[in-house]
Amino acid sequence: MTTPTPLTYRDAGVDIDAGNEVVERIKPLVKRTFRPEVMGGLGGFGALFNLTGKYREPVLVSGTDGVGTKLKLAQQLNRHDTIGIDLVGMCVNDVLVQGAEPLFFLDYFATGKLHVDTTVAVVGGIAAGCELAGCALIGGETAEMPDMYPPGEYDLAGFTVGAVEKSMLLDGAKVRAGDVLLGIASSGPHSNGYSLVRRIYDRAGRPAGLDLGGVTLVDALMAPTTIYVKPILELLGRHDLHAMAHITGGGLTENIIRVIPDGLGLDIEASAIVLPPVFEWLQREGAVPNPEMWRTFNCGVGFVLVLAPGDVAAVSSDLQRLGLAHRAIGSVVAAAGDERVRIG
């Protein structure tokens, strides 16, 4: 009888030593994101965060997201250092909509074969995003799963928890007909519409170095999602904002209306939607009709504020001071039948 050859976890495709090396290399990156409320460090079975004394009536707001197929483009281009910023941005901008300050973040990184440098680059981007958002990266999971992913591929998911005083929660109740929509500039497509982006990019012959007004096409497509947290939290402390929207999947057509109460609609001025060069290129090369652009991409508007007309001047002044390019893009109106969003 033949004695079976001894097998190890490494033989099965899982390298525990590589995982341990990743943890050691990301520890200083993660530590930079810690806030005073963080209890303990990396390595526990659960992450601890102390809310004592910070809020009177805290409402916790949670969010989870990924980066869609922008991840495929990042892997195709071997650009792994900013996709983590996208991951954080997609989550923290969502909880910000309800007035919440993101407190902490957790990530999930899964791959078939763990490449230490790639993993550290991705987690470094996540840590950088957390620093931009002011939230702590207090935990996560790195999963090496042979045969689940093709060589060189990985998947990402993010999770965040924020908090807001119950009295400050933005739930759309203040929104009125006549309110103004202020659109704040995006850095590019952020992390939405990339299945269409990649189709257009491939059909155009992957012209990575194409110049778009001083920025290459590939740099414009890979520009990380703008994280709006710190400036918007400052605005919330100074102004009476009625509602906010993060422009993600569904674009301008389907996102702003999510924070508008029943009985009200939106009148968005098409002339106010000035496409930045990367979106002009996508529309031209893909022959994408305007309605499809508006429901797929942010079209240069990454975040929207809903506020009373009398507050526009003061809020605009603060947005300018905070370095956020913006413009009025429309208004809240009485809903006209079933059509709640008009762009024209």
Q: Separation of termini?
A: 80 Å
Q: What is the percent of helical residues?
A: 25-40%
For the secondary structure, the number of strands is 12
Question: What's the overall average pLDDT, rounded?
Answer: 94
Spatial shape = globular
Question: How big is the Rg?
Answer: 22 Å
Strand order of the largest sheet: 8-10-7-11-9-12
- The helix/strand class is alpha+beta
The major sheet is characterized as: 6 strands, mixed
Unreliable parts:
none
Detailed description of the structure:
- The model has no long low-confidence stretch (mean pLDDT 94).
- The protein is built from 11 helices and 12 strands.
- The radius of gyration is 22 Å and the shape is globular.
- It is of the alpha+beta class and 344 residues long.
- The termini are far apart.
Task: Offer a quick outline of the entry.
The chain has eleven helices and twelve strands. The protein is an alpha+beta fold and 344 residues long. Helix 1 (16-31) runs parallel beside helix 4 (116-133) and helix 3 packs parallel to helix 4.
